[in-house]
Amino acid sequence: MALIDVVKCEVNDKELVYKFPSDDLRIGTQLVVYSGQTAFFVKGGKILDQFESGTYTLKSENIPLLNKLINIPFGNNSPFKAEVWFINQLAILDSKWGTATPIQLEDPKYDIIVPIRAYGQYGLKVKDPRLFLETLVGNMTSFSTEKVSSYFKGKVMSQLTDCISCKIVQDKISILTINSHLIDISQYLRQAICADFEKYGLGLEDFTVMSINVPEDDPSFLQN
Questions:
Q1: Quick check: 118 and 209 in contact, CB under 8 A?
Q2: In the predicted model, what is the mean pLDDT of the chain?
Q3: Which DSSP string corresponds to 97-136?
Q4: Helical H runs in the chain?
Q5: In whole angstroms, what is the distance from residue 40 CA to residue 35 CA?
Q6: CA angle, residues 39, 40, 44, in degrees to nearest 5
Q7: Which pLDDT score is estimated for 40?
Q8: Cβ(93)–Cβ(125) under 8 Å?
Q9: Which residues of the chain, if any, have pLDDT below 50?
Q10: Which residues pair with 122 in a beta bridge?
Q11: pLDDT at residue 6, as a whole number
């Protein structure tokens, strides 16, 4: 068993969670938490002591919850086993979204059903790292931004479909002029879906509808 002298995770914008590969630690191990990170000690599936950015020399006094659970032997360099998880709290601003299939909407001006496609992007940030670790990560050893986007894709897109329909009907927006309302629609959709992210410890940094369009070869479009 090789005891670890330094525990750290290099910051990157592709992984929201990183589990340090070894749990063979000792009193005196140095824990390095970079700016924009939060580190947690985990033992037996329980999330214990939390560390904000800084450099720490581990001792029984600064890991009280872990120490209480495993009762680390007294003495210099005493070995113990615990997982260390790092949560990346940097904003990830380039996540894309889009409707997989056209949304069938009734144009309030022309009273015809037209298919529309919507595209945009959003930003994510872990606001509550402990809640995020508890609710999403489970037993996974990494959690990339792609995995987060994939996890939310079905849930969010089904909600967005309903929200776009409601907004168009509520404000009586014609499909032909819809792109002049993108800022207002973006704000409306952001407010509608942000709660779904917050209950997992995530915050929406931004949410933008970049385009809503009707296929130009669609018969309903050609009629007008």
A1: yes
A2: 85
A3: EE-SS-EEEE-TTT--EEEEEEEEEEEEEES-HHHHIIII
A4: 64-70, 129-132, 145-171, 182-198, 219-222
A5: 15
A6: 155
A7: 97
A8: no
A9: 221-222, 224
A10: 95, 207
A11: 95
One-letter identity of residue 33: V
Q: What is the pLDDT of residue 73?
A: 72
The tokens of 204 are what? 């929406």
Q: What digits encode the pLDDT tens for the residues 167-190?
A: 888 888 888 888 899 999 999 999
Pull the structure tokens for residue 153: 């894709």
Residue with tokens 């800084």: 54
Class of residue 107 by CB neighbours under 10 A (exposed 0-12, middle 13-18, buried 19+)? buried
- Tokens at 123, concatenated: 């930003």
Residue with tokens 């949560």: 87
Q: pTM here?
A: 0.82
Distances (CA, A) of 58 to 62, 77, 156, 157, 183: 7, 10, 41, 45, 49
Helix (H, G, I), strand (E, B) or coil at 126: strand
